[in-house]
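Input record, target 12 of the design panel.
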């Protein structure tokens, strides 16, 4: 059985943090360190087909949730607090409804339990055009992506996945082919009638379009104990755009 790669920080109550689509454990290192200084053993997990974890042709929310259940088992953890952003938030929700006994508390960052129309195609197209026969430096990769993404934030996020396969050759850590083929899977809704009734926090960016007031009903249907909080001056990447407020609000919930 494959075990997911992770970065483990600190001692205390287990807290699993799940990154979003095309992300990696490392995206959460700064916040993860803060939680670890406040009584948590933080597990920053690379999900399958991402970061340093294994590649596989199988990829949907049930499989990803199963991976986390197996990860808990592997590390001898009967249960944990689970936090996820975007795609990772959907995985966290799936885990909570499938294996509620394994999830003590749930934090979902900027995603609702509903279906989302596929919206990553332009990123996939740009990544597919990166030619590592001719791109031999991070700078060249950045310049190639700049044609599609003038915002350096998006480029830096994607380029975190760049690594040297050999001394001469760069590549991307995530499994681009499978992720492109399985994009329909990561926009799916949480299964109807599934619920999780332990403490839950949905934390959303005030500038994000991912969670609308019209989503609050479906959130409460699946997660009757859910509290919905907003982080000011933040879009979908709320934990990166306003980490102080994200940490404060999530920590207040964790300490309840």
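The sequence produced for target 12 reads:
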């Amino acid at each position: 059985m494959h075990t997911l790669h992770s970065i483990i920080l600190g001692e205390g109550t287990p807290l699993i943090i799940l990154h979003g689509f095309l992300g990696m454990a490392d995206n959460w290192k700064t916040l993860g360190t803060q939680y670890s200084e406040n009584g948590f053993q933080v597990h920053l997990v690379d999900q399958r087909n991402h970061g340093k974890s294994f590649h596989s042709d199988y990829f949907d929310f049930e499989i990803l949730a199963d991976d986390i259940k197996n990860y808990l088992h592997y590390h001898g953890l009967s249960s944990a607090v689970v936090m996820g952003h975007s795609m990772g938030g959907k995985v966290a929700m799936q885990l909570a409804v499938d294996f509620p006994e394994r999830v003590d508390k749930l934090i979902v960052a900027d995603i609702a339990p509903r279906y989302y129309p596929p919206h990553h195609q332009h990123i996939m197209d740009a990544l597919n055009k990166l030619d590592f026969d001719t791109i031999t430096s991070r700078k060249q990769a950045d310049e190639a992506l700049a044609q599609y993404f003038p915002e350096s934030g998006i480029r830096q996020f994607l380029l975190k996945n760049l690594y040297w396969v050999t001394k001469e050759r760069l590549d991307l850590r995530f499994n681009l082919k499978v992720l492109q083929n399985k994009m329909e899977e990561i926009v799916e809704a949480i299964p109807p009638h599934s619920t999780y009734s332990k403490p839950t926090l949905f934390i959303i960016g005030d500038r994000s379009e991912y969670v609308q007031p019209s989503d609050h009903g479906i959130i409460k249907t699946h997660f009757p104990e859910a509290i919905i909080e907003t982080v000011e001056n933040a879009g979908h990447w709320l934990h990166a755009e306003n980490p102080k407020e994200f940490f404060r609000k999530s920590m207040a919930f964790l300490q309840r």
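The mean pLDDT is 96.
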